């Protein structure tokens, strides 16, 4: 199994897709061949309007959750730091759980002192007073972050107080059941009442990183929201239709926030 990196982009539909061509399940994908440097250059070298809006909304949600010294988790961190940055001011610890060995190596380098390309993402966070009060985010991340090679399917139960999972459930395999299972395991890993943010691509037809193709599930908005609502309350949903799109093969991306039922 692998936790794929986050991707800026997605697609939308109001009903589940009637059929999907069979493709590889998570365990069949060579995740250690993922190239985080290529992925980051394509997806995050420039702060896109869709990622800015997702980060802004996630920032405001966690700032309003009244967290303090929380045990936090970012699941499927991959080659994306901005979900972790959204947790930083409120975290006693942040566990970055990722399966690809290449991405784990990249993450460990970044948490020691992250690349300046992430500074614009932190500047979006710092537009809120709760984040602006944290004047040295690099030092804070190096102190609280813990990177581990961990599968979403092996997350412990009720281990964290807040969490993020960005663009993972849609892009870890071509199996719809694995997508639904990933969402359920993420929510179960949080304690009852914990605030969370989940982002997915909708209608994704898969994606490429350099010379390698990786699978995806063409998720629909209704099925994602229903799956999250089964384990959460106070659920809010926001959809972005990127123009221009980040890549071919999707139409929108979905951000869902709420609190876990436990």
TrEMBL record:
<dbReference type="GO" id="GO:0032259">
    <property type="term" value="P:methylation"/>
</dbReference>
<dbReference type="Pfam" id="PF01234">
    <property type="entry name" value="NNMT_PNMT_TEMT"/>
</dbReference>
<keyword id="KW-0808">Transferase</keyword>
<keyword id="KW-0489">Methyltransferase</keyword>
<protein>
    <submittedName>
        <fullName>NNMT/PNMT/TEMT family protein</fullName>
    </submittedName>
</protein>
<keyword id="KW-0949">S-adenosyl-L-methionine</keyword>
<dbReference type="InterPro" id="IPR029063">
    <property type="entry name" value="SAM-dependent_MTases_sf"/>
</dbReference>
<dbReference type="InterPro" id="IPR000940">
    <property type="entry name" value="NNMT_TEMT_trans"/>
</dbReference>
<feature type="region of interest" description="Disordered">
    <location>
        <begin position="1"/>
        <end position="27"/>
    </location>
</feature>
<dbReference type="GO" id="GO:0008168">
    <property type="term" value="F:methyltransferase activity"/>
</dbReference>
